[in-house]
Specification:
mainly beta; three-stranded mixed sheet; 28% strand; globular
């Protein structure tokens, strides 16, 4: 599986500041990907999936305020 950088918006994150990979945001098909894994993006502004290497990164200028 190829590694990709996926720019995301703050609104794409859940209320805790994370998301799951595989993700439709990365145009992944669940059936041909890896197990679902939670990634904390808000903490550092990016997170890399340990399975496929996809890097989910907040788009420049985006900030997660939390709820």
């Amino acid at each position: 599986m190829s590694q990709a950088t996926i720019e995301i918006l703050a609104k794409d994150l859940n209320h805790q500041g994370g998301l799951y990979c595989p993700s439709p945001l990365a145009d992944m098909k669940i059936w041909n990907s890896h197990p679902k894994v939670y990634l904390d993006v808000a903490h550092s502004g990016q997170a890399k999936c340990p399975y496929c290497g996809s890097l989910y990164k907040l788009k420049d200028g985006e900030h997660f305020a939390g709820h």
